[in-house]
Amino acid sequence: IISYKTLNKEVKIMKKMILGCLIGLFSMNLFANEINQPEGAFGLKLGEDFKNLKVVKNIELTNGSILYQVIPPNPMGDKFQTYMVSITPKTKKVNFIRADKDYEGYGNRDECRKDKDEMLLLLENKYGKFQLLPGLNINENKSKEINDTTILANCNMMGETFSLYYISDKYNKISDKEKNDLIIEKTNSDML
After folding, report:
1. Cβ distance 72 to 39 under 8 Å?
2. Fewest CB atoms within 10 A around its CB: which of 11, 30, 43, 186?
3. Distance from C-alpha of 149 to C-alpha of 20, rounded to nearest angstrom
């Protein structure tokens, strides 16, 4: 027969062991997420200084923002033809990385989907399951949010371009703030 005191001691030891196991599992999960946190792709890093990049050309968009076509340190052979970044307007940090593969003409959905699915296989092996995008999604485009980074694999509607995006929420917020700061700096508000 076990005494109450001995039983109470064993229960306390068991509680400590269970708590230790739970803390260990939680720590391993945090560590695993930290290991798989994407910093960027193709040798380009989100948050990297723009001055470190090899720029091929500037592409001005209709909204006034600029994409920069770059030569990445680690291109993926024939998987992509064009690599682009967007940067924060004042601090000049990369907030968005995009790689494109273009197909001849229109109606190449099958080829685009095949390339997208192969890329998703690699990405899901590294980062876990991706989710289908909501809404009209005839090409079954998918994305995954990992901490403050979103990865998006996308075939456009007609299948003439496959794009892979790495988007930093942190640097997009900084970019939005810097855009607003620039508007305020350029505008004389004395008349208001």
Report:
1. no
2. 186
3. 31
